[in-house]
Design goal:
single chain; alpha/beta; Rossmann fold; 4 domains; 21 helices; 41% helix; 13% strand
């Protein structure tokens, strides 16, 4: 790019070096036109460079290192014959260089331009080396950071859950850097490489195809042999040209070799931003078709349509020949015709009418819409223009009092432009903000495009997403799946790209020995675990109050397990408790009604009432065990049961001891008469009961029972229970009752031979035998059951032991009172005693 003093005089003269090859990539001609369009706009805009005019020279490197160095030196020092470091002939005031398209060309240019600190803005380079600001301090890139693109590739693969992917790249330094970076990122994100194919950098397309057709290559390329549906292609446009030619050659081979017919190129091709879909003139010879890449997903340099750009393209025609050294080659190869001044024999091609229009060309040869690289060229020209404008504005303000008139372009030194380029920030005509970061890279993202092809070998690119570096981490990539058109040969969309079939819900992954981590078997989830999504790494446990269903693909809420009043077992236990309570109340009523009869008087009436009342509460306390546990019921269940039962056993003990003492007091000379009486019996009840009360009080103050949920014991049910707080205290309560029962049984067994008329010892002995049998069987049964059945066992033990006391002790009395009242008199009792 040049800055000239002639006001607004457009001076652009593309001047290519002498022809090195006869063919050009016609599609890249738009890059030249974008530069011309941008220069024209700047020169027509008095607000940017009002007293200067942009000019330019265009050189073709022919993708050759030697020609790149030659043309770069020629640009700086002389038009046709050059002597390095000497400016001979026409003076060129070069303020910046835009190029090149490939990373190799950019780095070769930077080798020379960096020596003279001339700003170089690459519009397509992704080479890691040339972004080193220490080695190339004058290098700028009109493209985003390449690391962002790597991150976008990984997020794209994750979005579609493609875990088994292939890589194709060029076998050079850039390709090696890409492989090292992407392989690490893929591995960290659980993605495996199905294959990694390196294309020799200097392999000519002709050689590759010839090897396949001639049969010297008997093995198909890895991308054809692999079952991976997703293939990432890294490189430059030549890479996709090689790939298209290879697929076309393989298609010919498949017609000859039957075993190759099963392989298909129906893949999801994922291309990087440096790649453009073009057709080479040689590809017309073989059966290659852009439709092989239908459905490809591409990371593209962000672009927008520019106002008047299409009108500008429509105005292009071969009449530019005097000023444009490229248009003749472009026109002849694009339209397969010869211009009148061509040196090629006219019988080979038709003669060009010059009425041909660019719009009629298929997309692989020329696009009418603005491409990403052309948009970068456009922005690069404007970046130099705004930097130059900023520099002139600054100087004019500083020297307004010293210099009269305008500044000359000869005063501009290229190295002076760097400080202004680094700070340049403007909005282009499409509304995008253009600025560079500290590494000289464009602060922008990428477009995600989808290639849609047509039968006429043309295509369009549909924007289906974007890669935004300003988004929150992990969400830089956004994709609109509904807009994506997939390859027509795929059997499923979105396609699968995995080492094996997905693990469906209910299964987890199991590693295959000797295989990559993406290859695995699917194993059913173990007991208590589930997976509700495809491709879950491991099965997970349900929440504590849930359990997996039969298919183990979802969790079902556990059924609450407690002894309810509504269920059969609860109804039976409640009915039994109320029935026995009613019977106890009736027995008490009968005894009170016959309060003054000999049989009631003979067995200590006050103790009998205490015993019956305590038995009544024993039956009623079993109701605390029915229903959903709550804080109050948990506190009262075991403590109330323990205290009331202790009172009952203490009363029985007082009765039997009173009887024994009464018989001992009747013996001549006995001193036991002072111990006989109600005071002694009440003291026994109080002293025996207060110990149990103390145990329960200690229990409630230290580790009281509380409502709890047992989510682990039963698979499909959650047990609503009372946690005893302290198992030791619980068994202390039971142990003390057992101790009282053993004492009662021992004393009653000793007193069993006393006269029947005044003695309850035999009945008490039998009742204690029933009591001990019930509670001895209770312990192992209680420990062997869970949930509501454990509660039912305790209720049964309470009811059975209480009913044993009630039946064994009071049924004989009630029998005499109700059935044999004639025996309920003093004479009968005395007679029986004698």
């Amino acid at each position: 790019m040049e800055a000239q003093d002639s006001p607004r005089a457009a001076n652009y003269a593309p001047r290519p070096a002498s022809h090195f090859l006869s063919s050009v990539v016609t599609k890249f001609y738009q890059h030249i036109l974008a530069l011309v369009f941008a220069v024209d706009e700047i020169n027509d805009n008095p607000q940017i460079l009002p007293n200067l005019t942009f000019g330019f020279h265009i050189y073709d490197s022919y993708s050759n290192s030697r020609m790149t160095y030659r043309t770069t030196l020629d640009l700086l020092f002389k038009s046709h014959h050059f002597v390095p470091n000497y400016k001979c002939g026409i003076q060129k005031n070069v303020i910046g260089v835009i190029g090149g398209l490939t990373s190799d060309t950019s780095s070769r240019m930077a080798d020379i331009l960096s020596l003279y600190k001339i700003p170089q803005i690459s519009y397509g380079s992704f080479e890691p080396e040339v972004k080193n600001k220490v080695k190339f301090p004058s290098f700028y890139r009109m493209v985003p950071n390449e690391a962002l693109q790597y991150q976008g590739i990984v997020q794209l693969l994750q979005h579609f859950r493609w875990k088994w992917v292939g890589l194709i790249t060029v076998d050079d330094e850039g390709g090696e850097h890409f492989l090292q970076a992407i392989e690490t990122m893929l591995s960290q994100n659980g993605i495996c490489l199905a294959f990694s194919e390196r294309i020799p950098k200097n392999m000519h397309l002709y050689t590759n195809i010839h090897e396949i057709i001639s049969g010297r290559r008997t093995i198909l390329p890895a991308f054809m042999m692999s079952e991976a549906s997703a293939v990432v292609i890294h490189g430059e446009t030549a890479t996709i040209t090689w790939l298209g030619g290879t697929i076309g050659a393989i298609r010919i081979i498949q017609l000859i070799v039957p075993q190759f017919k099963k392989y298909t190129a129906a893949k999801v091709w994922i291309t990087t931003a440096q790649i453009d879909f073009t057709s080479h003139i040689f590809l017309k010879i073989i059966d290659t078709d852009i439709q092989d890449f239908h459905g490809a997903i591409s990371f593209s340099i962000h672009s927008k349509e520019l106002q008047n750009f299409q009108d500008f393209l429509e105005s292009v025609n071969p009449s530019w020949d005097n000023a444009d050294g490229f248009i003749s080659d472009f026109w002849e190869q694009a339209f397969s015709c010869l211009l009148s001044n061509s040196t090629v024999p006219t019988d080979i091609h038709d003669t060009c009418t010059k009425e041909e229009v660019l719009e009629s060309l298929p997309s692989p040869y020329f696009e009418m819409s603005m491409t990403g690289h052309s948009f970068s060229v456009y922005n690069a020209v404007y970046s130099l223009g705004h930097a130059l404008h900023f520099m002139y504005s600054t100087r004019s303000n500083c020297r307004r009092m010293e210099v009269m008139g305008t500044l000359s372009s000869s005063m501009v030194k290229p190295w002076q432009l760097h400080s202004f380029l680094q700070r340049v920030s403007f909005n282009n005509s499409a509304g995008d903000k253009i600025t560079f970061n500290e590494h000289g890279e464009l602060v922008a993202g990428f477009d995600i495009t989808n290639l849609v092809t047509f039968s006429n070998k043309s295509y369009i690119k549909i924007k289906v997403g974007k890669l935004d570096p300003q988004a929150s981490p992990g969400k830089e990539l956004t994709i609109n799946e509904e807009r994506i058109k997939w390859h027509r040969g795929l059997t499923q969309v979105p396609p699968l790209s995995v080492c094996n079939d997905h693990c469906y819900p209910g299964y987890g992954k199991k590693k295959k020995e000797g295989k990559k981590f993406c290859c695995y078997d699917c194993a059913p989830c173990p007991d208590g675990m589930f997976s509700n999504e495809k491709e879950m790494e491991t099965c997970v446990s349900c929440a504590e109050d849930y359990y997996p269903n039969t298919g183990r693909d979802q969790c079902i809420p556990k059924i609450p397990n407690f002894l309810s009043f509504e269920e059969t077992l609860g109804i039976i236990s409640t009915f039994s408790a109320l029935l026995f309570s009613l019977i106890t109340a009736l027995v008490l009523g009968i005894l009170i009604k016959h309060w003054h009869t000999p049989i009631v008087k003979a067995n200590n009436r006050s103790l009998t009432c205490i015993l019956l009342i305590s038995l009544l509460f024993c039956f009623l306390c079993s109701l605390l065990f029915t229903g959903a546990p709550n804080k109050v019921s948990c506190l009262l269940r075991q403590t109330a049961f323990g205290i009331i039962f202790s009172v009952s056993l203490s009363t029985v003990l007082a009765k039997i001891i009173t009887v024994v003492l009464a018989f001992m007091a009747t013996k001549p000379g006995s001193k036991m008469s002072k111990w006989v009486g109600t005071r002694m019996s009440h003291y026994i009840i109080l002293s025996s009961s207060v110990i149990q009360v103390g145990i329960c009080a200690l229990w409630l103050t230290t580790t009281p029972p509380f409502p709890d949920l047992d989510t682990h014991t039963m698979t499909e049910e959650i047990i609503l229970q009372c946690n005893e707080g302290s198992t030791t205290m619980f068994y202390c309560v039971l142990g003390y009752m057992g101790f009282l029962a053993i004492v009662n049984f021992t004393v009653a067994f000793i007193a069993r031979k006393l006269p029947d008329s005044f003695n309850e010892a035999k009945f008490i002995t039998f009742s204690m035998l029933v009591f001990c049998s019930v509670w001895l069987s209770f312990i192992p049964t209680y420990l062997a059951t869970r949930g509501k059945y454990m509660v039912a066992v305790e209720i049964f033990s309470i009811l059975a032991s209480s009913a044993g006391l009630l039946g064994c002790i009071f049924s004989p009395k009630c029998y005499i009172i109700l059935v044999r009242p004639e025996l309920n008199n003093r004479e009968q009792l005395i007679r029986r005693r004698i």
